[in-house]
Amino acid sequence: MGIGIDRKIMDIWRFALADTTLSPIVGQHDLALMLLSFLVILVASFVVALIIPNIQQSKQRNYRTLWISSASIALGVGIWAMHFIAMIALNLPVTIQYDTYFTLLSIPPAIAGSSLFLSLLTQTLFNKQAFILSVLGLALGVGSMHFLGMEAITETVQIHYPIEQFIGVILGIVFLASITLYSAFYYPLSKIISALIMAICISSMHYTGMSIAQLYALPNTLQSTNNLLTPYQLSSIIAGTSLFILLLLACARLISARIQDIKASSDQFSRAVIDNSAEGIITINAEAIVLSFNHSAEAMFGYQADEIIGKNINRLMPKEARVQHDNYVKSSQIHAPQVINVARDLTALRKNGDLFPIELNIAPMSLNGKKIFIGILHDISLRKQQEQQIAASQARFEQLTLLSSDWVWETDQQHNICFLSESFQQLTGWPLETFLGKPREKVSIYDLNDNNWNDYTAVLAQQQPLRHFKFTLKNTHDELIYMIISGDPNYTEQGDFLGYRGTGSDITDITLAKKNAEKANLAKSQFLSSMSHELRTPLNAILGFSQLMTDDPDEPLSEEQQDSMQHITNSGNHLLTLINEILDLSKIESGHINLSLEPVPILDLLNECISLITPFADTSN
């Protein structure tokens, strides 16, 4: 290693023999070491064949660069190790010393040539130009590595390359590189066969280059037995180190393949979940361009996925909403908190031009360093129809309750009033807040002295139907109002008690009318009672005097007088009977009249009637 670098660079291409007095030497190749060198390049080629799919499938530039670098190192180190072990396999009758500078300098060309070869090979568009450049890259890398490596032994031997043979070797290397590319990768076979073809071609490049090298022994370079390492030991170290590096790269490739399989399986599962989801799922990028469109979204909007993917999402919006959405995107308001992870009701546009309501929830996600947005959509047409029906029913119910004299009420599980219709406020004048949240019997404006609240609370405690419960309260004018309510307990589908729901009515007019009627009836009864006593007194006197006149022995009546007196007595008794019956009228109204069955003398009754009407008949002739 005492020769200067400048001289080595000047003498690198040795097409003329510098010293014609030197004696040529011929070496013998060690078959075992030759097989070892082939094994190294075979393993390197197989590792590269494993890594190439990773390069081709990498979507991100940094991952692609990483895998190209790994494969380039694997192939470059394998080529260099194969070359160095093959050099050691050549046994010469002189001591061989390897120049460290040229030994290390021969490594970068192999890696660089492999990198250019793999970069062009795995690009998306692989045309003839890329084919030629990749072949030249590999040939240049292997050729440069070989001839620079040969310069590492020029301290002990002189090398001569016949120019014609040198050119032929260069062309041979290019040809072998073409075969490597064309047979192993341009029309790829199995990885093992591809690796075997590549290993044979690269090994052939080395031995083709060695075949034209004419070696001459320099003076005082007899073979020495004092070498620190034997050729086998040195070859084993180089092969072991190279194979270890290749093994690490192969393990990395296998781990990566496993990760990719798991990721692919996960992606496939996620895709299946998304495609079979009942909800419409659409993903867009930061520019609002549609990236994916699942089956439910296709059914919802009427578009096929390929019709909408790559288009702006505003195609699914009404025209009047598109400008606002585009402004959202331009001003980055799509990232705003009021848009992200918030369910919103919007109007969407189908392919056929129909508008329909949707519920949209947007969630952000980072994918490969880029922000995308996942929109989950639900067609809420049915829900909107139901909401409209409920709103119409509610409006109709409120209108009816306002027009009706009745009101509607509800209580919760603790029997606190939780709802009262507006009619109740109009009736009482009290704000509804006066009653809400309180039990009915605890509201201070109720007239508790006029209500049987014990019966009310007992019915509610047993969760029984409430029927025709009457109570009173005072309005804002301190006037007493009479109420009547009915209600039924309300339960969930599972049977859990929710409270009561019922109706109420104002019965003030009816109640007051009844009370007034009762007062009038009482006055009538009192009047009749007093009038009956007033009528009985003179009637009893008449009957008494007629009885005395009829029964007076001192002045007996004539027969005609007795008949007249008998008429007076009978008429008086009849009038007394009528008065007694008037007094019994109050008993009849109270329902306490007693009836008795007795025999009636029909003849006497008829004679009495005749005697009563005879005077009227005589008067009328």
In total, the number of strands is 15
Number of helices: 18
Radius of gyration: 61 Å
Spatial separation of the terminal alpha carbons: 183 Å
Shape: rod-shaped
Helix and strand content put the structural class at alpha+beta
How would you explain this protein's 3D organization?
The protein is an alpha+beta fold and 621 residues long. The protein has 18 helices and 15 strands. The chain has four domains: 5-218 and 228-257, no CATH class; 277-379, PAS domain (Beta-Lactamase), CATH 3.30.450; 386-506, PAS domain (Beta-Lactamase, 2-Layer Sandwich); 521-619, Helix Hairpins. It has a five-stranded antiparallel beta sheet with strand order 7-6-10-9-8. Strands 12-11-15-14-13 form a five-stranded antiparallel beta sheet, sandwiched between helices. Helix 3 (61-89) runs parallel beside helix 6 (128-150) and helix 7 (163-186) runs antiparallel to helix 8 (191-211). Residues 1-12 have low confidence and may be disordered.
Write the layout of secondary structure elements.
Elements: H1 5-10, E1 23-25, E2 28-29, H2 31-57, H3 61-89, E3 90-91, H4 100-105, H5 107-121, H6 128-150, E4 157-160, H7 163-186, H8 191-211, E5 214-217, H9 231-275, E6 280-285, E7 290-293, H10 295-301, H11 305-308, H12 319-330, E8 344-349, E9 355-367, E10 370-379, H13 381-403, E11 407-411, E12 417-420, H14 422-428, H15 453-461, E13 466-474, E14 480-491, E15 497-506, H16 508-551, H17 559-590, H18 602-619
Antiparallel strand pairs: 1-5, 2-3, 4-5, 6-7, 6-10, 8-9, 9-10, 11-12, 11-15, 13-14, 14-15
Helix pairs in contact: 2-3, 2-8, 2-9, 3-5, 3-6, 3-8, 3-9, 5-6, 6-7, 6-8, 7-8, 16-17
